C-alpha cells in the first residue's frame, strides 16, 4: 500500500489563499473559495499522480511513459504524451469528492471507468 501526500498550501501565496476562513459584515464566519481553486486542485492531483506513478505502475507502463518523454524532449518528436494506465496497477480509486466537476474531470483525464469511480461517487453527497 502506498500513500502519497504532497503538501501545496504553503508552496505559494496562490495555493495558500485559495481557501480561507473569513468573517462577513454581520459577524458570521464562513469559507471563502478563490476562483483559482479548481486550477490549484488540478495541479495538486497532477503532482500526487506523478509522485505515485513510479511507486505503483508496472515497469511496462513506466517504460511507455519514459519513451514518450524522451521522444518529446530529446528528439522533439510530435508524439502525444502517454498517459499511463493506472488500472493496470490499482484496483480501486477513492478520489476526494470535492464536487461533481472534480470527479468528472478526473474520470475523463485518467480514462477511468464508471466502475473504477464508483467509490468516489458513493462518498459524494449530492445537494438536496
TrEMBL record:
Mind listing the UniProt keywords for this protein, alphabetically?
Acyltransferase, Transferase
The answer to whether the entry has keyword Methyltransferase is no
Top-level taxon of the source organism: Eukaryota
Q: Does the keyword Zinc apply?
A: no
Q: Which Pfam families match?
A: FAE1_CUT1_RppA
The residue ranges of the FAE domain are 2-73
Q: Which GO terms describe its biological process?
A: fatty acid biosynthetic process
* GO molecular-function terms, A-Z: acyltransferase activity, transferring groups other than amino-acyl groups
InterPro entries for this protein: 3-ktacl-CoA_syn, FAE1_typ3_polyketide_synth, Thiolase-like
Q: Which GO terms describe its cellular component?
A: membrane
Q: Give TM segment ranges.
A: none
Name recorded for this polypeptide:
FAE domain-containing protein
**Species of origin:** Oryza sativa subsp. indica
Amino acid at each position: 500500500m502506498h500513500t502519497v501526500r504532497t503538501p501545496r498550501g504553503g508552496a505559494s501565496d496562490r495555493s495558500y489563499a485559495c481557501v480561507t476562513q473569513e468573517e462577513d459584515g454581520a459577524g458570521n464566519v464562513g469559507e471563502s473559495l478563490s476562483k483559482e481553486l479548481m486550477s490549484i486542485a488540478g495541479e495538486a492531483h497532477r503532482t500526487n499522480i506523478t509522485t505515485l506513478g513510479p511507486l505503483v505502475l508496472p515497469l511496462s507502463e513506466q517504460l511507455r511513459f519514459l519513451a514518450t518523454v524522451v521522444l518529446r524532449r530529446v528528439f522533439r518528436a510530435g508524439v502525444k504524451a502517454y498517459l499511463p494506465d493506472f488500472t493496470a496497477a490499482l484496483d480501486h480509486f477513492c478520489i476526494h469528492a470535492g464536487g461533481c466537476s472534480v470527479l468528472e474531470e478526473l474520470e475523463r483525464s485518467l480514462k477511468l471507468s464508471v466502475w473504477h469511480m464508483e467509490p468516489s461517487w458513493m462518498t459524494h453527497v449530492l445537494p438536496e
